[in-house]
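Q: May I have one protein plus its fold?
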Amino acid sequence: MSDFLALVCPQCGGALPQQAAWRRVACTYCHVLVTRNPSLVERSHFQAALRRQAAEHARLNPEFVLEGAPCRLIAPLGSGETASIWQAERLTAYPERITLKIAHDASGAAQLDAEAQHLQNLLARDGPGSAYYSRRIPQLVAQGQYQGRRVLAWRVPPGYWGSMAAVLRNQPAGIRSEHAVWIWRRVLDILGYLHNNGLAHGALSADHWLVQPRDHGVMLIGWRHLHSAEPTDAAHDLQQSAWTIRQLLNPSDTEPPALRADLPAPLADLLASASDYAWCRSTTAPALDALLKDRARQAFGPPRFIPFSPHSPTHF
């Protein structure tokens, strides 16, 4: 037999209908509005609180105009030697989330201008694979000024969470070795396109690798270092990519980061080879990717999808 619950008015003690358990009702005796649901909020109260929050946010983050469109900062994402990075919003007819890079000084402004020019040149290419790879580099939105400092803005790609450097702050012991495989393969795929077009990225540190957890995607940023590539520059990109993978597996201050003791031998051997500059000069990004695919199969068996969480490691 279930327990019987009697609802009474807290003001007059009169009986209340059962609906008071989940919504607001008026007491038939004293006419006070009452409910038993502690999470119920009146629409007018919610809307008033929302207006107060919006007004406070607007006070702390005033609007500014970027190439004719009003914008507003939302939240800081990080800060580097030359610029700070913010999440922002373009307040147009169809509001759009953007990532904003704000230069610290004149030197940083020059580097932002160089990065914008590199991206524009890269996106303007119309050769084989250009349409595919244009979706894997930042899409420029605008350039301009914010409070007297140079600004570069690009669209927020859907599903991208943050950088691999941010992932390591959540996972200080390093990521799973299975995840290192697909992350490295995504980077090598982009490098293959760049090197085939005579270009080199030149700055493949973990803070320049944005990760898309759900679909296992990686996007490179930090394009101010992009330059015409000699074979030596392509080899340097490959070596940098291997060093960064070693850091993701075993965060440390050594150069290169030490190989983790529990790393499967096929993957450890390949990382050791690819960390050597001379070895990298004898190969290419597609060839290294083919080796990685083979070594991953030796280490882990047939490919399988393992969900990736940037917040905490997955163990099962």
